[in-house]
Amino acid sequence: MAIQNHRGSLFRTKSIEQSIRDTDDPDAKLRKDLTAWDLTVFGVAVVIGAGIFTLTARTAGNVAGPSVSLAFVFAAIACGLTALCYAEFASTVPVAGSAYTFSYATFGELAAWIIGWDLILEFALAASVVAKGWSQYLGELMGSSPVWHFGSTKFDWGSVLLIAVLTVVLATGTKVSSRVSAVVVAIKLAVILLVILAGLRYFDAANLTPFIPESRPSDMGEGLRQSLFSFVTGAGNSTFGWYGLLAAASLLFFSFIGFDVVATAAEETKNPQRDMPRGIIGSLIIVTVLYVVVSLVLAAMVPYTDLAGENATLATAFAQHGATWAKNIISVGALAGLTTVVMVLLLGQTRVLFAMSRDGLVPRALARTGQRGTPVRVTVLIGVACAIMGGFVEFGTLAEMVNIGTLFAFVLVALGVLILRRTRPELERGFRVPFVPVLPILAVLACLWLMVNLSVETWLRFVVWMALGLVIYFGYGRRHSLVGKTSSEQG
Description:
Blueprint: H1 16-22, H2 36-47, H3 51-64, H4 68-92, H5 99-106, H6 109-142, E1 147-150, E2 153-156, H7 157-172, H8 174-200, E3 216-217, H9 228-233, E4 238-239, H10 241-252, H11 272-301, H12 314-320, H13 326-358, H14 376-392, H15 400-423, H16 438-452, H17 456-480, H18 482-490
Antiparallel strand pairs: 1-2, 3-4
Helix pairs in contact: 2-8, 2-11, 2-13, 3-10, 3-11, 3-12, 4-10, 4-11, 4-15, 4-16, 5-6, 5-15, 6-7, 6-13, 6-14, 6-15, 6-17, 7-8, 7-13, 7-14, 8-11, 8-13, 13-14, 15-16, 15-17
């Protein structure tokens, strides 16, 4: 697929061969240090966060009941279908940028910009939101809030401290980041295994019946707060039952967000054709098994009705049995979990912006790498921006925008596999999605279903963010695009 000779075309593509040649630019060259083990560690590091300690309990008590474990399986299936598509793309186009780079080769420049702008939203917002969650757990362990008040202004120094430290680690080098992740992942996995073993002492199979509680109406989510599906169909909201189970899968999908970040490190992988599929799929399998086991143990520890409310956590179930010691253990696990989540999200954000700057869609100066082969400039820029948001911004329901951004990227990646199979069948693929076109189509449908279960206000905010991105593209990116300049010279 050659670059189209029309600079003004919104659908000009960047050939895969050109993307790979760009990785040899000495001024913007990333160091290849990562193995399949490193990628698996990154995947587990970014996916397993505080969600396993908090979201599991709330979803069981308010939406799904004991069937929360089955909801995890449904969410994992949607992620697994997309993971296969990511694995094929990452092994075929081992270039930084993940879905942005893939879209440039298949859909064209405008779509690539849209998905890159979308990923900036996903990673930067997620890193800032999770950093604030880390700060809250730090406050619980310290016994005092890590938030300073200056009149009506609040400054969360805990989240700023975390982002600052992790920015330095990332600027030092990706291999160092992987080693730090491995240590912290070991800590949080140890906490999770301890929670599972301790919870088995209170396992009561009777609490798993009925596995799917009878459906009941709910007044949660009115007006713009209701899901797009409810808004369009007028079906209203319900909890428990089969509809509650499916709604729970949409909620628990949040717990899997981040595995796609692994694909952003393709350019820094020693053997991407072999190791990228192993890292992406391996990390997803590990976290799914852990999620299902934890949710089963939790549901069997206490009746699901005891977990109703917005403040329920795994510690709530242990408190029912007088095991109050679990609170501090779970806080330590959450701190460890959130540390690696923020670090890998920052890594993904820097690699996407790095790829966009190398293509000229944002200032090229950001694409320069230091002696360590690390994009220090873009890393510091992202670190400062996320620290400001984490320190001063109250996010509230803005956090849901992370999920709609992720799902939108998933849809384009799945469609991109179908397009690239047709347009470039001769490309060497280290991994091939089986049963094409069935599995990519199922991935698209699964992601669209999860998207329509997000709130109307989330959709409206997403549209506004995309509109802002288009203004920047037409005002700067389109005129400075290296692909556009090359097309003009060839013309």
